[in-house]
């Protein structure tokens, strides 16, 4: 007997953004649940079984399941999708059930799961359950442990979940192309005892990167390292959801990396401990206090903290070009260059030409530049004090007093108590004392050793 109560209850949680399509097949392939919205869905509270704290997927959702006797049944559909990367830009990607990344899969240790995978791509695919211990023939490596799933076909993966933790799924078929197109999803397995490793808020996202030329929609799939969009759940700032947290909560953030480089993820404010990797839980005695943790390629890290300090705390990748969108790549350095004459010359050819970057590049954070359609500014997003000058892998952990337990709504910007914001003082700043040089106080004597070519190391002192 098939109970659809779980599925229907879960679908109701999706608040209309999701649609249950297709019909229950006589062949017992479950309905397909899809969503095309990049909005964060409410956590999927389990209707039965252990009362775990469900995860929240940034700009994403958890796939509902149905119970078929004691099997949890889910249906993933690999298919082309349109993903809004941030307001103003859409990308044509491949994903699962209407989105890239695909929905998060949430299980409990000991669950018997049956995952149907239908391939609606134009080429074959498979799914590998990264980090999970499954029977070898369920491991999803095309050619090695199973034949690839041809277009139009459905395969079934069946296994018992043997350990709790943080994992992910992705194809193990034409991998370079299929991951460059956005095919991936997170897997969270809760301990059988819901009080083990319990937190109050549990967030998850995957890092992926794309190479999409300004003005175009399709990632260049042969790119190996020079990506120009560094995303969390196929979103860039200011399109990435804030992590909304109630003051005093114990918070976990689970991060997976399916880009082709490492990402040192840095949280401002409270320190954290890395408590879980895709290999399992880290023993307490081995947990270092950190404010940055590097997430290697093909790995997951989960960190935990107590959110005892209210505020808007930045959370971002510390590689500064990863907090920058497509327009920021391939920009020449003009710091210190007087561009007046150059500008005059160029304007004869291009009357709208605007010189950029002679003082630095901060001016680009507030600049209204004409851009091709479907392109994001390189640095973008405004806070209460001005442009934040960030794109890409950047979000904010918003710690607030007295939120409801299940309230993940963006509370707006933090209202700082009076006297707690950095402020300006008026008046000229005193000159730092300098060594007096012959050309006056602003021109220090600089000693330079010049080696002239052809003088065999004879040098002249200036
Ligand atoms: Cu990074």
Question: Which terms would index this structure?
Answer:
six-stranded mixed beta sheet, disordered C terminus, single chain, mainly beta, binds copper (II) ion, 29 strands, globular
Q: How would you characterize this protein structure?
A:
Residues 1-26 and 457-462 have low confidence and may be disordered. The protein has helices at 5-13, 175-180, 340-349; strands at 2-3, 18-21, 32-35, 56-57, 66-68, 71-86, 89-96, 105-108, 112-119, 128-130, 154-160, 165-170, 185-190, 201-210, 229-232, 243-246, 250-257, 263-267, 272-277, 280-281, 289-290, 292-295, 299-306, 311-317, 380-383, 386-390, 394-400, 449-451, 459-461. The radius of gyration is 26 Å and the shape is globular. The protein is mainly β and 462 residues long. The chain contains three helices and 29 strands. Strand 19 (272-277) and strand 20 form a beta hairpin. Bound molecules: copper (II) ion.
Helix content: under 10%
The first-to-last residue Cα distance is 92 Å
- Give the low-pLDDT segments: 1-26, 457-462
Structural class: mainly beta
The overall pLDDT average reads 86
Counted beta strands:
29
Largest sheet: 8 strands, mixed
Question: Proportion of β residues?
Answer: 25-35%
The rough form would be described as globular
Please compute the radius of gyration using only Cα atoms.
26 Å
Count of helical segments?
3
Hetero groups:
copper (II) ion
């Amino acid at each position: 007997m098939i109970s659809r109560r779980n599925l229907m209850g879960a679908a109701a949680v999706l608040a209309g953004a999701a649609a249950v399509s297709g019909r229950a097949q006589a062949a017992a392939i479950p309905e397909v649940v899809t969503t095309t919205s990049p909005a964060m869905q409410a956590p999927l509270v389990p209707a039965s079984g252990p009362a775990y704290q469900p995860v929240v997927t940034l700009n994403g959702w958890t796939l509902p399941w149905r119970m078929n006797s004691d099997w949890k049944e889910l249906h993933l559909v690999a298919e082309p999708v349109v993903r809004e990367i941030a307001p103003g830009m859409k990308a044509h990607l491949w994903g699962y059930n209407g989105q890239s990344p695909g929905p998060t899969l949430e299980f409990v240790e000991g669950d018997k799961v049956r995952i149907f995978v239908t391939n609606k791509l134009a080429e074959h695919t498979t799914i590998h359950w990264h980090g999970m211990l499954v029977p070898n023939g369920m491991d999803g490596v095309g050619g090695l442990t199973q034949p690839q799933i041809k277009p139009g076909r459905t395969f079934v993966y069946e296994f018992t979940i043997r350990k709790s933790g943080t994992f992910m799924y992705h194809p193990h078929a034409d991998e370079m192309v299929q991951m460059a197109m956005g095919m991936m999803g997170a897997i969270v397995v809760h301990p059988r005892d819901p009080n083990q490793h319990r937190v109050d808020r549990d967030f998850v996202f995957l890092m992926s990167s794309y190479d999409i030329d300004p003005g175009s929609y399709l990632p260049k799939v042969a790119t190996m390292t020079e990506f120009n969009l560094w995303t969390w759940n196929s979103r860039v700032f200011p399109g990435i959801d804030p992590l909304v947290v109630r003051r005093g909560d114990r918070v976990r953030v689970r991060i997976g990396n399916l880009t082709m480089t490492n990402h040192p993820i840095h949280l401002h404010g409270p320190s954290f401990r890395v408590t879980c990797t895709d290999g399992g839980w880290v023993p307490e005695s081995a947990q270092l206090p950190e404010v940055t943790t590097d997430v290697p390629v093909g790995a997951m890290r989960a960190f935990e903290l107590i959110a005892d300090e209210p505020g808007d705390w930045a959370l971002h990748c510390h590689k500064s070009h990863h907090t920058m969108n497509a327009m920021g790549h391939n920009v020449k350095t003009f710091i210190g260059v007087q561009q007046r004459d150059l500008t005059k010359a160029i304007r004869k050819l291009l009357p709208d030409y605007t010189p950029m970057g002679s003082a630095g590049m901060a001016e680009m954070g507030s600049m209204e530049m004409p851009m091709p359609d479907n392109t994001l500014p390189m640095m973008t997003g405004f806070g209460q004090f001005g442009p934040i000058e960030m794109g890409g892998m950047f979000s904010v952990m918003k710690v607030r007093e007295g939120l409801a337990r299940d309230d993940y709504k963006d509370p707006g910007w933090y209202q700082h108590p009076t006297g707690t914001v950095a402020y300006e003082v008026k008046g000229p700043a005193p000159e730092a004392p300098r060594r007096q040089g012959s050309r006056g106080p602003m021109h220090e004597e600089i000693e330079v050793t010049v080696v002239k070519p052809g003088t065999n190391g004879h040098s002249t002192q200036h």
